[in-house]
Amino acid sequence: MIKSALILQLLLSGVAAFAPMMSTSIQRYQSTGTEMNQMFPTSSGLELEVVDEISNPFDSYTPTDDQKEIAIKDIKIGSGYTVGSEDAQLLQIKFTSKFVGSKFTANIKEFDVPSMVFKTGEQRCLPGLEEGIQGMKIGGTRSVRVPPNKGYGDSWYRGVVPPNSHLEFNVELVNIAQSPVEEFQMKVKQFGVERVIGATVCFLYLALSPLFDQ
C-alpha cells in the first residue's frame, strides 16, 4: 500500500510539473501561422493559413494604388430573380455615388441616377459597378466600392471625376426583364412614352409622305 501511494504521488507530481509547460507551448504555437506549421505540418506539405475572421473587405478597402478589387456590402437583400443567373440580362437600377478618400466633393450629384436600363455584357455600365451588382436580387440595395482600374481610370471623366478616383455606389436593383415583352416595356419606360409616340409619328409621317404627294 505504501509503495502504491508513493507511485501515485510521483505521477501526480509529474503531471502538475508538465501542465504549465504544455499550456505555455500551446499559447506560443497559437501566436503565429509559421509556428503552427512547424508544430503541426500537413501531410500534403502545404502550410496552414491563419485567417482573420474579423477582416471585412468593404471596411478594409483602402483608396490607394494597391487597391485593385471592388468591395461590396449588402444593405438590403432582395428577392426573386438574381443578377448573373443568365447571360445578357436587361436590368433596371438606380444609384447615388460619391468619392472614397478624396479631397474633392464627397457626393457626385451629376452621377445620381434615378433610373438606368442596360443589358449585362454590353459594356454600357461601369465595369466595377456591373461586377459589383452580380448576385443581387430584385429590390435589394448594395454599396459597391470601385477602384480606378475598374472605374474611370487615370483621366478626367466629363470634368467631374478626377483621375485615379475611388468611387462608392449605393445601388438598388429595380427590375430584371424576364421576357421580350418585359424588355420592350422597360426600354419604353426608360426612353419615355412621349418620346416613343413622337418618334413613331415622325416615322409614320416620313413613310407615308410620298403617298400624300401623289
Automatic annotation (TrEMBL):
Using the UniProt record, name the top-level EC class of this enzyme in a single word.
isomerase
Q: What is its EC number?
A: 5.2.1.8
Which segments of the protein form a coiled coil according to its record?
none
- What chemistry does it catalyse, as a reaction equation? [protein]-peptidylproline (omega=180) = [protein]-peptidylproline (omega=0)
SUPFAM superfamilies, alphabetized: FKBP-like
User: What span is annotated as the signal peptide, if there is one?
Assistant: 1-17
For this UniProt entry, the molecular function terms from Gene Ontology, in alphabetical order, are: peptidyl-prolyl cis-trans isomerase activity
Q: Which UniProt keywords apply?
A: Isomerase, Rotamase, Signal
UniProt entry tagged with the keyword Isomerase = yes
Q: Which InterPro entries match?
A: PPIase_dom_sf, PPIase_FKBP_dom
Looking at the record, the residues that make up the PPIase FKBP-type domain are 88-177
List the protein's name. peptidylprolyl isomerase
Please report the organism this UniProt entry assigns to the protein. Stephanodiscus triporus
Organism lineage string: Eukaryota, Sar, Stramenopiles, Ochrophyta, Bacillariophyta
